Hints:
Blueprint: H1 19-44, H2 58-67, E1 74-76, H3 82-88, H4 92-100, H5 134-147, E2 154-159, H6 166-178, E3 182-188, E4 191-192, E5 195-196, H7 197-200, H8 206-209, E6 217-222, H9 226-241, E7 247-252, H10 271-278, H11 282-292, H12 298-321, E8 353-357, H13 359-373, E9 377-381, H14 409-413, E10 418-420, H15 425-438, E11 441-445, H16 456-463, H17 466-469, E12 479-484, H18 501-504, E13 510-512, H19 517-529, E14 534-539, E15 550-552, E16 565-568, E17 573-577, H20 581-596, E18 600-604, E19 607-609, H21 613-623, E20 626-633, H22 638-649, E21 659-663, H23 672-678, H24 682-693
Parallel strand pairs: 1-2, 2-3, 3-7, 6-7, 9-10, 9-11, 11-12, 12-14, 13-14, 17-18, 17-20, 20-21
Antiparallel strand pairs: 4-5, 8-15, 13-19, 16-18
Helix pairs in contact: 1-3, 1-11, 1-12, 2-3, 2-9, 4-12, 5-6, 5-15, 13-19, 15-16, 20-24
Amino acid sequence: MAALSGVRVTDTLFAGLTTDRLVQSYRILYTSRRLDDREIILKRQSRIYFQISGAGHEAIGVAAGLALKPGFDWVYPYYRDRALCLTLGVTPEEMLLEAVGAARDPASGGRQMPSHWGHPKWRIVSASSPTGTQFLQAVGCAEATRILKGEEIVLVAGGDGHTSEGEFWEALNAACLKRLPVLFLIEDNGYAISVPVEAQTAGGSISRLAAGFPDLFLREVDGTDFLPSCQVMTEAAAYCRAGEGPALVHAHVTRPYSHSLSDDERLYKTEEERRLEAERDPVEKLGEWLVAEGILDHHALSIIQHEAEEAIQQAVDRALKAAPPAKGSARVFLYSPDVDPASDAFAREPDYSGESKTMVDLLNACLRDEMRRDARVVVFGEDVADCTRVENLEKVKGKGGVFKVTVGLQREFGSERVFNTPLAEAAIIGRAIGCATRGLKPVVEIQFFDYIWPAMMQFRNELATLRWRSNNGYSCPVVVRVPIGGYLGGGAVYHSQSGEVEFTHIPGLRVVFPSNALDANGLLRTAIRCDDPVLFLEHKRLYREPYNRSRYPGPDFLIPFGRANLVKSGDHLTVVTYGALVHRSLQAALQVEKARGVSIEILDLRTLNPYDWEAIAESVRKTSRVMVAHEDCLSWGYGAEIAARIADELFGHLDAPVGRVGAQDTWIAYNPQLEDEILPQTADLVRAMERLLAW
């Protein structure tokens, strides 16, 4: 661009910025505001479908962008970070492509709302709508940078309302524990929709509450004042880059527009409050300062504004002509387009050696094999290390998980690849997402399935959606290992529940549930080598059962997902099952066969998403009778979907109703006799088989 008349050309620095950089910064601030204004008009014309603005946040956003290395550092933005993203390199046209939901939208290909920023080229990680989930992922990203010996820092931004979420505090704690290079930017505009900061944050100041965290660089700044914002952000980034630890910048900004076009701030903000906010407008303040300092005159300021308006108009014209996502593309990038874990590439025969081993032994062997094969594999969670205090490692036997699945891994692979985390399930999953996005292969553990629920937001809205919502711009192929199930005698409500159906209902998430040691070994290896997030369920009762042992199958043994195991062939009834019900179904079948002179076929699904519909259909066509058995509650359980599909697609092949066996619709009890009454037993399976065969 040609030099503007009315611009003072000088090398003089203001807060480390040349006059040219200051002028360009004003251009970005002004462009950001006018993009908001244009989108508001487009929304009122029904040419876009949603709008949420970054107005009032422009100065701190540009300051943050100037403190980073675009395309090198990692950024986890929030929806008011339009100016930050413009500074990093996102163009007005790309932002308007988001607004119209175009196929060419680089953030999501038309799959997310506008202002859910994301751009792989600039390492802006796809933002989502849930409040505060990004903090933990940013910590995981920084953790991966540390493990990979990188020099990048990670910026994560949020509003003051975001800090009310527990995940913010979990992230801050984890970042300070490891002195990670994470720059937390809290853009405090005084409101979380209609709730003022004094009703969100004790004492009305997040920086005051965070002051006690060790090794945390903490600064408070007027985020509408550009030069002080630049100074503070530069210092904070330098602190992180030097390896001193994390930083938190508490920037006081304004929100001159309503929360979104679905909100009307006049319903809860007084006119006086709105007037005082207008007086702190960051765009007006920087423009006035540039004129007052003689860097620009009013004519040059007007030229910049006119050029920005023209550029926006041209971007609007192009965006409104952009094609929408193609019909039939709704499921594209739900899973990896490059690695299919259900393909023959994952069918590898075992090469047996040694003596028979338990499921625990072969899970441990698989983890060792994969950690030796791939240096990107890291293992973390609650109690998974041998000993957190490394200096004591040679003095103790070592824990290696409550069930000993990870025992010895820390000793072999070191504390950087195998480590314990705070007892915070959301933090385990959130950090794993960030690690995987950054390039590691996390295999993490939630100690008991019963305690997985604090992490549900990270599972459903983050882990399973990232590839799809970013249109394959980002992915997070995490493996989450979870002990599950009952039949323990004394496990009770919080150590014996099932609940796998809540996860099979989540698009984008693979769910695996082996019933024996050999399958556990082969399926875990497939889970680690595939490119999708996997929930790997390990039944606690099956960990050390004598009947399901196997010899070690070798380091390359793989079982494809979505392929059921034919446990037993039969002609008169099909039993579709998995987990602890496989062995019980086999016992029941042998009893019924002996009594009735029939043969019963048993299919072990092994993976629940995907599941082997072809094997089910083939078996039902042969036997004409079928029952589905699982340990979880009967009502609305996993078996209901299988039964419904059989009734829908195979009705003409049935000689009897589709049977179902499951647990009672209640919680698992502590008393062993009561637990036996609640969970399906062999006798329950026998009765169900007899009923269907007698039809």
